[in-house]
Batch of 2 targets.
Target 1
Amino acid sequence: MTEFEMIAKTFQGLEEILAKELIELGANGVAIGNRMVSFKGDKALMYKANFHLRTAIRILKPFLHFKADSADEVYDICRKVDWEKYMDLSDSFAVDSVVYSEDFRHSKFVAYRVKDAIADYFREKYGKRPNVSVANPDLTFHIHISHDDCSLSLDSSGESLHKRGYRQEAMEAPLNEVLAAGMILMSGWDGKSDFVDPMCGSGTIPIEAALIAKNMAPGLFRSHFAFEKWKDFDRDLFEQIYNDDSAERDFEFSIKGYDKDPKAILTAKRNAKAAGLLDTIQFEQRDFKDFEPVKERTVIITNPPYGERLTDDNLLGLYEMIGERLKHALIGGEAWIISYHYECFDNIGLKPSAKIPLFNGALPCELRKYEIFDGRYNDFRGGDRRLKKDDLPTRRSSTLRHKARLAEKEEARKAEFIENTDNKDFKRERPARKPSDRKPFRKEGDKPFRKSEGTRSFRKDGDKPFRKSEGGKTFRKTEGAKPFRKSSSEGKPFRKSSGTGRPAAKKGFKKQ
Ligand SMILES: C[S@@+](CC[C@H](N)C(=O)[O-])C[C@H]1O[C@@H](n2cnc3c(N)ncnc32)[C@H](O)[C@@H]1O
């Protein structure tokens, strides 16, 4: 198959881990950029990238590179594109834009001009124009402008890839799935020891950990990828990729998720059930202050509350308690904690062995690693293994570096935040959608994702929805059953999720 250029977009700080994922997937020409990784591959790789990558938020396929220094010039060039190669008059479309250029002040205006060019192309040919759809377009085009370098791409993902499809409940401040997976991959945890998130909220970190431990594709639960509406969509090829479970593996250790809030545990269980992972993760209501000693080599990855203001003494007290518990109950293990305020980290009272700047939404955070040894830290780190000064950046240098990066990337973050969320106010964290705002998981008339167990065909028109239908109910009843794969014509089993997974219309979860 012919190879072409692609761009995988991600969050700042996850570029290297995404590049590693791409190389493992078989991508060629992998090159790291700012919040993106470019690579080359064929159509199969494009499908795989969407289906398998844990740290990408979307995969773009550029099809035109040109120079322009005004929106009108962009219009003139776009007017000459043969748009019928990509879409028909009956297809709806949307245009996204990201602009880093003094010459183009308003990225939205550039997007309007590209829309105008597409509309005018069809109007001139057929006297009619295709519809623009913001909510559910058949095709999304993406214009990226850096100075006077412009690229037009097709968005092969559609909804951001962090929307895995297993989240059943609206939450106030859940961790983004891509960030959660990135943190786990960065930690190097690969399912070869026990794993705990002692403040798991809706369960994002334990669920992503279980997917990694079992090497299950994060795209398994998605109802749709944008490339399925492309003119050149190869259903057989995608079916083959979707049904290939040969890389999945058994998991022999434990994954635990605790939270002091019973509502969080209920939510986490619902989400895990929808991912067919209820039998892999043990969720329990438990305060971190009651955290008991765990086996050696246990890895904790967690996202404690950090709020935006540091006015609450209890918050600092919480971090002090976290430090005390880690020191006494995680001996021989390591903890990775993402937080926002240095004061919070200071209150942990342990020396981190790594500090990684990351963004959680628009908040500049840090992921810190704590290795807990039996005995004094410096004793363990003695001899050749003594940390050099450079290994542990001082708070001041790390702060300055972080601030400098912040200033530099302000515009970029704004553009990305607006691009990836429905919230145009990039300074605030995106509030969870209220249940009433949630789009139904599948609308009537949508093509179903997974075929019904009874008929065993792959996502044909008229298929039953995603999860198997039983006596009018949309979802499976059996709890804890393993996902399955449906039989193809060669008798290969198809996947089935174990969750009952009813899209629950419950209240939002409490804000961190
Ligand atoms: C920022 S949220 C975690 C969000 C989670 N990563 C997710 O994706 O949904 C912080 C969680 O810590 C929990 N928490 C706060 N104090 C706790 C404590 N002392 N023990 C256990 N959980 C606690 C809160 O109930 C909340 O669910």
Target 2
Amino acid sequence: MSGGPAYPRDTRKAALFCPAPTAAGDGRIAAAYDVCVADVERGPGAQADRIADLDTSVAHPARVYDYWLGGKDNFAADRVAAERVLAAAPGLRFRVRANRAFLGRATRYLAAEAGIRQFLDIGTGIPTADNTHEVAQRAAPSSRVVYVDNDPSF
Ligand SMILES: C[S@@+](CC[C@H](N)C(=O)[O-])C[C@H]1O[C@@H](n2cnc3c(N)ncnc32)[C@H](O)[C@@H]1O
């Protein structure tokens, strides 16, 4: 028996959902593409199975940031790392919240004043209050947002 995937291949659907990496793309993009194709081919539930394997014993920047913002989507390792950084930089919580407030003001301005309707939010973090699409769509309901982050499950 071959070592290929045990699930049926559906390359047409995968091509639709998974943007192929360019030849010059780095290895992480190619790896993300492979995971995306496998998820699409395996169908509903595949992504949830993979997320269940998430290693929560290692701090991740998105969850550490969530902790600093007062969010609930973080684990012990994230909180320990976050507190260590706060011990070295006590004003950080204020700066993190100021950064989040700037994101809101900038998005609001772009949607309400500058007429922007398509947003690419790179390094979006974990969903929390006033996410980019919520701010943009409050100002202009037809706004569309694509979120990108460094997925810790890869
Ligand atoms: C400081 S948080 C910013 C969250 C949000 N944009 C905000 O302003 O409130 C930075 C985010 O960037 C993400 N990140 C770091 N390196 C990245 C990369 N190479 N590609 C995409 N996201 C990345 C982290 O996972 C984290 O969620």
